[in-house]
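Agenda item 2: flavin mononucleotide complex prediction
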Amino acid sequence: MTKPSVGGLESPDLSSHDATAHESAPHVPVFAGAAREELDQLLTRYPTKMAALLPALWIVQRERGWVSEDSMAEVSDLLDLTPAYVKGVVTFYTMYHQHPVGKYFIQVCTTSPCGICGAEEVVKSLLRHTGTGDLGLTSRDGKFTVIEVECLGACGFATPVMINEEFIESVTPEKVPGILEDLA
Amino acid sequence: MGFPHPSHRQETPLLTRHFGEAEARTLDGWKKRGGYQALEKVLAMTPGEIVDIVKESGLRGRGGAGFPTGLKWSFMKPGDGKPHYLCCNADESEPGTFKDREVMRWTPHALVEGCAIAAYAIGAETTYIYIRGEFTEPLLRMERAVREAYDAGILGANAMGTGKRIDIYVHRGAGAYICGEETALMESLEGRRGNPRIKPPFPAVSGVFGQPTTINNVETLAAVPEILMKGAAWYKAMSLSNPKSTGTKLYSVCGNIRRPGTYEVVMGFPFKDFLHDVCGGALDGRKLKAVIPGGASVPIQTMEEAEATLMDYEGFAAQGSMLGSGGVIVIDDAQSMVAVIARLTRFFAHESCGQCTQCREGTAWTTKIVERIRDGHGTMEDLDTLVEIGENMTGTTICVLSDSCAVPVISGITKFRSEFESLIHGKRVHSVLTAVA
Ligand SMILES: Cc1cc2nc3c(=O)[nH]c(=O)nc-3n(C[C@H](O)[C@H](O)[C@H](O)COP(=O)(O)O)c2cc1C
Ligand code: SF4
Ligand code: FES
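Presented output:
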């Protein structure tokens, strides 16, 4: 078995990450212009402001690629929550990136149904061809991050791989180089 | 594997009938196929009449527990002056399960229509379809279908010109299996961590935003328009086994099987024919060894049990398992059961929300011990310890995720004990040899 990191019991290897998770430049608000209008529209769907938290965080991640402490503070202001509360929610869910990730964020399912169809070999092939070296790390050129995830709800298409918002079905180790080439 | 596959002659395609037809995804295409006639019909009926038809049809929840849908709806009290909510559970994260994904990808309007009918029947002005965050294509399809339905006046303040308000919103989850548990889903929808709530109160009394709420699975709701169009008696007649299990059921089949995919068969269909004929049986040169028939949370079946099963709620129970979500995981003789189980317990350990000690600690320790056995460092005492931990994890926690983790372990040790023992003894032989050397 590959070393379990993200998706496993041991904590992921954070060595490549910026420990503070603040932005390097002063925070430019996410919710201005169109994004602000989008949030205002979302708020009409729910009886509480808090309910717009997950959608708001999705907007942050779409616009910035990750959810920084500064963005969390901005969201908490807009929704009348505390930054600590927002952080508590962000850390509960696996899909919000609390650190910058590679341009192509690659998630591979290795839960049993995919595992018995050869998912581990797909993981190895991805690690080799992206040059990231290990799960959770980002390649030197900033292009790729590969993580192992739990069931993606596409078990009949083993092995499913998600690259950013795109779902690729029935990936085998041999198909990996072609898939990566198509990204470039 | 190309998908969707053409229907097998032994299938009864009802929900899957239009899978693979791109045109069926659009409002026009859906209407051409009879879409939204059921909604039009029911809007002229009283909510009570609709609930009675669904009760009479025998439809049971397809999300895992099999609770009678009409009965669940009857717990709602429209007109009591409170806001009411419908939640559609599209969090589908149970390993082995991918049927709701196909419903949303291919027939999004079937789900919109089912939600609209259910919402009217229970008096809910607002419906949230909670879709797991990873389902990017289903999210897109559902958002488009909902927008089309609003633009056509099917949804909104004056739904289909009746003066009734039906609002449907798509809400994206963010990665957490536990949010499929109904009260965790509600917490998540409210903008909180997805921690399951202690029940009672049940959702019909205090659900999302503290208001009366009904929650149903995607497949359950997608079956509703057909039932209202064709009647309870027609639906009820679809059963080869017993009157408590009616209609058709979707099964998503994966693992070591020739033709993985989503299939639809009538209740009571023989599991033996399903596995060997409909799904094509084992891969070349391999033999099927075990099946987990209802998603990772249900007991493992031996092939003997599986082949004696009639596929319905009672049939799976009679053969040592449960129908669950209909996520069929097929395991062949090339796999180590211990390795399969170890990876499943790791899943549960990762997904535990951590509120209950038995679950938080139990899932983690179970994983450590099963992995130790898998890696050749186990002892016979470990097997007793696993069963003891498993018993301690069952029936003692806020939700049943804890129980679910114990299920593959206990059923695995009971039914495939020799595989555990040979790994344990293999290690002993090995250590004797090294001692001699
Ligand atoms: C840990 C856990 C995960 C669950 N995941 C799902 C899920 O992904 N989808 C689903 O429909 N039901 C899921 N359920 C079942 C729901 O709690 C609930 O029973 C179901 O949505 C009710 O709908 P139904 O009556 O139409 O089946 C889960 C239950 C538990 C305990
Ligand atoms: S049983 Fe596990 S997942 Fe369920 S509430 Fe308790 S800790 Fe959370
Ligand atoms: S187990 Fe891999 S997608 Fe479900």
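Discussion summary: Residues 428-437 of chain B have pLDDT under 50 and may be disordered.
Owner for follow-up: CH.
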